[in-house]
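PROTEIN DESIGN WORKSHEET
SECTION A - STRUCTURE
LENGTH: 450
TOKENS:
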């Protein structure tokens, strides 16, 4: 694929609200503030008030129509890729991820990049990292402070960043690794701000300059990524082929016309894998620890499972964690021609949202949805197809899904052995930041003496 052309699709004009289903009349900024404060609660309220579907408006996006029943959600996420554009819906991420990112491309360019990225994620390949992930988790748990409360979200972000640095980058230069350890977390935070606040992030609020801070942090990380890419290109072919990290596989991969991936493509996909794979997994782990410590029966069975026993139960626990706290609460597609979903036609330019958070909390899909019960996924009752979709679906389904579930299970099996308790029994508030649902207080733990 030539790297001199712009592969992104032009956004169609927004349709008038009068052609869309009813929804909140609050201004877009007020709607985003409402979602930030109570993402699942506000979706449930809007659903109760307006039914399915309802329309929402948030800054940076055109008007969006929200679906939540498995049948309609399936139509949204598996719609024809030349009409249902996820890249257009993800466009606000391109400031961070660049124009070659798998997340922001559509159509043929998307499929071409996806073809290059799928083999490194395929099947059992990444399971070879199991031992390393266990070691990193043990090392992390061993340094949790005794007797003083600490935030588990920060710890999990550090841990999953280590995993990404090994699995995706395979960096061996310790100085560069240290610089990325230092620079990536603030960049992730800045990216969240510019994505969440859209155009509002361009304004300076006194010393708070969201866009400027973000660009400075991004440029510093880019310099390191490009240096790593250049070094990796100099590795002899046989040594490169023997390496198991994703960057090495991508450096050795070729497009259909035989050309290698350009520096810009590699940079954008590396950034995409960090952004899509690091905070999401860390957040799922943080929620997991919170939920397990509030459900002692489940925790006891997880402890009894040990490092590799009771796979079905451990997998059911991970599924239930991702159901009740879906880290990515929605996925979107912008349509570039009119389509029919259910019994209604939608105009060109509208965003169609599959609300994962709402689907997972519908009483008719998961009875008593607020109750944490892994047995739901042990054949107790059938989960409808597209009733559980924490990784989205169709040709855009998360390419890290099986690795993320493996990582989640492997790390949890280690961490449940740690003698910790919640510092605070009050329920952890669910907050929306950027594109993820995070625990509002970061889940504070106290490690006890044994
Ligand atoms: C618990 C962890 C994770 C969750 C909940 C999650 C969730 C998602 C969701 C909902 C999507 C959008 C799917 C759609 O539009 O239908 C997605 C896409 C994606 N995810 Fe993940 N993800 C996780 C971990 C990872 C990891 C570990 C990686 C890689 C290291 C990764 C890489 C990606 C990429 C590259 C895409 C874009 C796929 C495309 O557009 O073709 N994710 N993820």
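SECTION B - SEQUENCE
RESIDUE ASSIGNMENT:
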């Amino acid at each position: 694929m030539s790297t001199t052309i712009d592969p992104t699709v032009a956004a169609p004009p927004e349709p008038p609200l009068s052609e869309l289903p009813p929804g909140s009349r609050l201004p877009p900024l007020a709607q985003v503030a409402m979602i930030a404060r109570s993402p699942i609660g506000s979706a449930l309220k809007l659903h109760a008030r307006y039914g399915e579907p309802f329309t929402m408006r948030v800054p940076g996006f055109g008007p969006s129509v929200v679906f939540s029943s498995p049948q309609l959600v399936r139509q949204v996420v598996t719609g024809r890729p030349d009409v249902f554009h996820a890249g257009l819906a993800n466009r606000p991420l391109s400031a961070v991820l660049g124009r070659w990112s798998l997340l922001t491309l559509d159509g043929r360019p998307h499929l071409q990049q996806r073809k290059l990225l799928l083999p490194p994620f395929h099947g059992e390949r990444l399971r070879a990292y199991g031992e390393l992930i266990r070691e990193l988790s043990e090392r992390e748990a061993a340094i949790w402070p005794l007797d003083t409360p600490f935030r588990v979200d920060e710890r999990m972000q550090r841990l999953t960043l280590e995993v990404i640095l090994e699995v995706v980058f395979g960096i061996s230069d310790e100085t560069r690794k240290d610089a990325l350890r230092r620079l990536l977390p603030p960049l992730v935070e800045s990216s969240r701000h510019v994505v969440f606040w859209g155009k509002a992030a361009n304004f300076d609020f006194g010393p708070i300059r969201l866009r400027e801070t973000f660009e400075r942090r991004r440029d510093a990380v880019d310099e390191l990524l490009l240096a790593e890419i250049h070094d990796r290109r100099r590795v002899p072919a046989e040594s490169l082929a023997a390496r198991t990290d994703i960057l090495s596989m991508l450096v050795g991969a070729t497009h259909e016309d035989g050309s290698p991936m350009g520096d810009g493509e590699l940079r954008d996909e590396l950034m995409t894998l960090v952004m899509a794979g690091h905070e999401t997994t860390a957040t799922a782990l943080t929620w997991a620890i919170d939920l397990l410590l509030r459900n002692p029966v489940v925790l006891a069975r997880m402890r009894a499972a040990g490092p590799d026993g009771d796979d079905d139960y451990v997998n059911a626990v991970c599924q239930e964690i991702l159901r009740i706290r879906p880290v990515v609460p929605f996925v979107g597609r912008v349509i570039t021609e009119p389509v029919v979903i259910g019994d209604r036609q939608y105009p060109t330019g509208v965003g169609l949202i599959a609300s994962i958070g709402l689907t997972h909390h519908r009483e008719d899909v998961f009875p008593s949805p607020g109750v944490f019960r892994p047995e739901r996924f042990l054949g107790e009752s059938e989960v409808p197809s597209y009733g559980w979709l924490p990784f989205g679906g169709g040709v855009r389904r998360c390419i890290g899904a099986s690795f993320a579930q493996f990582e989640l299970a492997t790390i949890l099996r280690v961490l449940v052995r740690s003698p910790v308790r919640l510092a605070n029994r009050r329920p952890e508030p669910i907050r929306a930041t950027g594109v993820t649902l995070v625990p509002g207080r970061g889940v504070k733990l106290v490690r006890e003496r044994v």
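SECTION C - NOTES
The domain at 17-447 is CATH 1.10.630.10 (Cytochrome p450).
Residues 77, 86, 102-103, 114, 168, 272-273, 276-277, 280-281, 284, 327-328, 331, 390-393, 396-400, 403-404 surround protoporphyrin IX containing FE (CB under 6 Å).
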